[in-house]
Amino acid sequence: RRLQPAKFERDAALLELVQSLGIGGSVFHVLNEIPEQGEDLFTLLCDDQLVMSFQVPRGKIPLCAEDIVKVPIAEYRNKIGQGKHRIRLDETLKNARVLLSR
């Protein structure tokens, strides 16, 4: 799903968090979101260039990120291999590129 900060408060907070980490970009997609007991784990596609993963502890305002990993898209594609995750990534990349070309 694409982050929509104008529609959803949580998306706005996530975008603000990502930008505070020095990540620029105009299109952000959530590739994976896993709610855990004390934190939520996120994997985001930033434009069509970078994938970043991080944890967001619950109950902290403003949001803060822990265990941040940034990976170029080519490296991430190789890491996830084939299968449904690759198909979803390729579809998301296609959508991101359409949005970026507008």
From TrEMBL:
It comes from the Bacteria. This is Uncharacterized protein.
